[in-house]
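User: Okay, second chain of the day. Same drill as before: sequence in, structure tokens out.
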Amino acid sequence: MPPATPELISPRSPRVSAARRLAKRNFRGKERLFLAEGPQAVREAAAHDGTLVELFATLEAAERYADIVGEARDAGARVHLAAEQVIANVSTTVTPQGLVGVCRFIDTPFEEILAARPKLVAVLANVRDPGNAGTVLRCADAAGAEAVVLTDASVDLYNPKAVRASVGSLFHLPVAVGVPVERAVAGLKDAGVRILAADGAGTDDLDDELDKGSMGGPTAWVFGNEAWGLPEETRALADAVVRVPIHGKAESLNLATAAAVCLYASARAQRASGGCRTVTES
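Assistant: Same drill. Structure tokens below.
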């Protein structure tokens, strides 16, 4: 397939240098651009209207993923055929897959999320690990959540590791960033959403909550830092502090696994007879 622009031989090309700088948070914030690596992320970025700005692809990747390159061009992105050395220079992974996209920021104002009256939301409070943040976003997407909120003390949504861990889900649902946890909880409560704090030392058991039939309404789960959980002042903001029961001998669940269990429990309850999704969708 013919190149859209001359092959970028040197990693010192201005375009390559500009893309490489986006691995750093301060440059991402200044330019309001971030990197999406690999075929899945680039495909989703191209499908997200107005998001994909540029695409760097090795010749091998351009041939293997010709459909994705075509979608990128159709989306208006500048496509550069690049030497493998260039891709390695721009990529933040050990084994690049030959495609690196430059994308515009896509976070959503918190007020827009509230105006949409969401039924299921994940709130990440003080989640510092980018892999955890991206994986929880992926879990929220899979469970059918309508939004994710990252508090002001959480990791950067556009951290390359977080973007990779979301496996494209970043482009599927609204995500608000930099929201103080108190504001997030207050806004969601005003929108009629019940707040559940997920904590291993919670006074309420997830199984009991399901058995009582109390999880069918609009719900936001607040997830904390994996190492130290949620502080007391955050737990105090919630309507209930819920623990995932451990029926075996495991000491605990990691953050992403616990989030998946909680979000799917809510999704199932909401789709059951009388749940808010059944009423809304009927």
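The chain has a mean pLDDT of 91.

User: Thanks, on to the next one.
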